[in-house]
Amino acid sequence: MIRWRRGEVVRIRREWPGAVELDVTTEDGEARALAYPALVGRPEPGDVVLLNTTALAMGLGTGGYAMVVAVPDRLPQDPQGPGHLVKARYTPLQATVLGADEQDSPFHEVLRDADSVDGMPVIVADLHSALPAILCGLYGQNPPEPGESDSERGRSLRVAYVMLDGGALPAWFSMSCARLRETGWLCGVVTVGQAFGGDVEAVTPHTGLLAAKHVLDADVAIVTQGPGNLGSGTRWGFSGVSAGEAVNAAAVLGGRPVAALRVSEGDLRERHIGVSHHSLTAYGRVALAPAHIAVPVLPGDFGRRVAEQSRPLAARHELVEVPVEGLYEALQGSPVRLSTMGRGLDEDLAYFLASAAAGRHAASLLS
Q1: Which of 9, 245, 312, 333 is 20 to 30 A from 99 in CA distance terms?
Q2: Which contacts of 142-146 are long-range, i.e. CB under 8 A and separated by 24 or more positions?
Q3: How far apart are CA 328 and CA 265, in angstroms?
Q4: d(Cα 142, Cα 292) in Å, to the nearest integer?
Q5: Containing H/E element for 364?
Q6: In this structure, are 161 and 282 located in the same domain?
């Protein structure tokens, strides 16, 4: 189940908030490795490290790293401060964090009786790669400027990301999240379920949405799983079913769920061409509460295919046609690289336009 290796750190390649990327040597040769300093300490060149090389051996596209499990000769100090919420429970790297909804939290009183997000738009998508594209559609041609304060802009639109635990558990794995926080495109990240490492920790998607609204003071929340979703090629065996459950959570809390369709013109797998079967299952079968389904108005035969495939979702949801004019230019302004399954903006434009269309529709709900 786990491939164990000992390695030695050769150099630090780069780092971003919460993560350090390394070059290490092992008995198998040189490899890239990733360490989360909050869990294992900060490795330095010359350190001996204990590695889990499973993802590296499998050649995973999203997470093909050797993962640093420990720096055995230089262990980090014991954690200090409050926090009784355990995540990645009963794994060797289970971590104790301060949950916004636990008794020791300064936000416990706020969240104890909170029962509504007061009509906040909640944009739901299957893949983590949809996050920056949704933001591009949401902000349009007026994104936040790095370092610009709320007072300088009047009050900037505050957008929180609620990260589900269907993909990567540490939010630190996502370079996109780090950059989007740095540039002010996100006001914060809430990690829920077994996911951890966000600005705010919460127990469930429900308390995650409540924290986005009442702790981060968000105007809009975006809900997706972390990077590295799991799929099996079966109707029900994919981690993106959580998108349907997120629609239910948003609705029961008085939010306005907006569903982003997973659309592709570049995927080599027929089940994902046009509207992916993931969206049709998550929204058509799992989501029991009604949502606005953002249907991008794409040109030509492919656009007609997307519209036709979306039609069965009207049995439960409201289909909203969203024009895509101007969205390509908005997507070009993304502060992070746009990529899904290794395909960039121009290699699978329909995917990013569909995600941005959901953001554009959510923006219209705020006016």
Answers
A1: 245
A2: 143/185, 143/333, 143/335, 144/183, 144/184, 144/185, 145/184, 146/182, 146/183, 146/184
A3: 15
A4: 24
A5: helix 349-366
A6: yes
How confident is the model at residue 274, as a pLDDT? 85
User: 103: how many CB neighbours lie within 10 A of its CB?
Assistant: 10
Under the banding of pLDDT at 50, 70 and 90, the label for residue 19 is very high
Is residue 191 within 8 A of residue 198, CB to CB? The reply is: yes
**Residue in 116, 125, 111, 361 with CA at minimum distance from that of residue 251:** 116
Q: What is the mean pLDDT of residues 147-170?
A: 79
- pLDDT-derived band at 63 (thresholds 50, 70, 90) equals low
Q: Is residue 11 part of a domain?
A: yes
Question: Do 146 and 243 sit in the same domain of this protein?
Answer: yes
Task: Please give the tally of structural domains in the chain.
Answer: 2
- Are the beta carbons of 166 and 225 closer than 8 angstroms? yes
Distance of alpha carbon 110 from the chain centroid? 25
- Name the 3-class secondary structure at 208: helix
Q: Which residues contact 152 (CB under 8 A, 6 or more apart)?
A: none
Is there a single domain that holds both residue 38 and residue 165? no
Query: Residue 272 belongs to what domain range?
Result: 108-366
CA atoms within 13 A on the CB side of 301: 1
- What is the spatial distance between Cα 301 and Cα 38, in angstroms, rounded to a whole number? 50
